[in-house]
Amino acid sequence: MTYVAGQEGDVTVVWIAERFREEHRAAIDWLNASTLESFNFFAVEIELLKIGNSAPAPRFNVVGKPNEWSRGIARATQRVSDASSNERQRFYIEYWSQFASYLADQRSPFQFKGTFKDYWCGIRFGVSGVQFAATAHRKGLGVELYISRDDGKATFRGLEVQKADIERTFGEPLDWQEMPDKTASRIAIHRAGNPADERDRSEQFRWFATKLERFRAAVVDRVRALIADADADGNVINQRGASN
Predict the structure, then answer these.
(1) Nearest 10 degrees: CA dihedral of 122, 138, 189, 104?
(2) How many independent structural domains does the chain possess?
(3) CATH number at residue 142
(4) Who has the most CB within 10 Å: 40, 46, 73, 89?
(5) Same domain? 43 vs 104
């Protein structure tokens, strides 16, 4: 295997033994399924045959070999997967680019940089590890405050204490998700909608912008105050910024 690892181009490996146990055959099958298409692995059992008084003659029995049909299926599946992934990325790049243009046309205070290729886009507001996010997929649309700081649970709970005032300022109930088994927490609002419905896209963008503005009014000052208090108390050891 060390020799094979240093080879380029087509490589054929033939393993000859008197007997192969089932785990050895499974290893050959795994190598053929998992390595480069130009790598081929064979398992060959050898036995000796005699006819009458003749000298013993070797007989080779192939018990493990490449399965080209399986490899062909794997190649086709990968192509379909790649095409689907690329199509999805192109869709979301266009969708979020249109949303960015909408925000610019509306002279919104919200802007985001970079290219978003998935169902969400993040909008920072100057606090490490805290950002707004808009989400769009077949299950519906969402806007959320996403907290991913190392001390984020304390920030979330500090906001939760103010839940009534925050929801009063926001104007409607919010979905509070502490997510105890994860570093991150979120406060979100959702609505039905399909980002693929171009006839509804302007309304979707309007909804995103409106909810982002309400979130800004309801939580930004509170988040900054909570984190400033934590910094003053010396409770913050490390902060992890959210990625774009």
Answers:
(1) 40
(2) 2
(3) 3.30.1460
(4) 40
(5) no
What is the maximal distance between C-alpha atoms in the chain?
100
Q: Within the chain, which residues score under 50 in pLDDT?
A: 6, 69-70, 73, 235-244
* Chain segment 36-60, per-residue pLDDT in tens: 566 777 888 888 776 767 777 787 8
Q: Are residues 139 and 215 in the same domain?
A: yes
Structural domain range at position 210: 84-233
Tell me phi and psi for residue 200, to 5 degrees. Answer: -100, 0
Summarised one tens digit per residue, pLDDT across range 225-244 is 999 987 776 543 333 333 33
- pTM of the entire structure? 0.62
